[in-house]
Amino acid sequence: MLHLYMGEENLPKDIPVIWNVEAAIPLVVFSGTPFQREVLREVEHGEYYDSTRFVDRFGGLLYYTDMSTGSKAVMEVEAIKDRVINCNECGENALCMLSHLTEGHVFLSGRDIGLQWDIDCPIDCNGRVWERISLLNDFLE
Amino acid sequence: MVFKCGDKTVEFRLPCGIYTDYSMDSATGKTYTCSLLNALIEYGRTDLLVVTYDDVKLIGIKPVIEKIKQGSYSLIFMDRANMYMTEELFEVLQGSQAIVYLDYKWNRVNRNICGSECYIDFTREGLLYYADDV
Question: Which residues in chain A have their CB less than 8 angstroms from residue B56's CB?
């Protein structure tokens, strides 16, 4: 199940948090998983190239450490399932990528953030399970 | 200011000032602009300043402020600027004769760090003008 924590007071005590997603990106094996390819396509407007690089929107090659912070954060959610990933710096398009995931731990600080993405499977938000994120959105609003 | 990036030629046509990312989306700031800046650096421009959050963590914000005060930059790019922006830094940026691009996820983090949002001209679309034929 995808776990969402909104507000620091709701963070679990027993799961470490990755606050600096930039620093943690070496923990992600950049192997071109379907999710990574989707993030590169949708967020970076590029494509996977090899284990260290991707083709950027201009057709140039960039190291995956040069991806946007949002792309890094959601890739870490997929790859590092035993940590909470700080997704505060994710833009809406990166957050939308989370709809492809059914596992992982996501932290967002603001309670006033409307979740623009939807997901077909249940989501746990602050310890309460919602069948769909749209229902959670209704609750948050 | 004209330079090439991949098969593109890009021209900056903006007056000096402070610009930031209006979009709520990821990959509209850093990757987008880093790609261009990489090309700029390869192009041999020395009147550029790129500041990253890692730089600031390493050396602190004061040396960055001094560098901007003493330098004469055409373009200053500040990656993840929301993570280290201060009122003093912002004042120095305002006083510089550069195009300043703030990669500033203002919508999610520390949006009030400089006191208000109105200090930024939210006109990202005008920052880069694509001119394949230049």
Answer: none
Choose from A22, A95, A113 for mutation: most chain B CBs within 10 A: A22
Strand pairing category for A128-130 and B75-78: unpaired
Angle, to 10 degrees, between the axis of helix A34-42 and the axis of helix A69-79? 160
Q: What pLDDT, in 10s, does the model give residues A82-111? A: 999 999 888 888 888 988 888 999 998 864
Its ipTM equals 0.72
Smallest CA-to-CA distance from A37 within A10, A70, A60, A71 is with: A71
pTM of the model: 0.73
**Cβ atoms B21, B102 nearer than 8 A:** yes
How close B84 gets to chain A, by Cα (Å)?
A: 14
Pair type for strands B99-102 and B17-20: parallel
- Tokens 């260290």: give the residue: A52
List pLDDT tens digits, range B71-80: 888 888 887 7
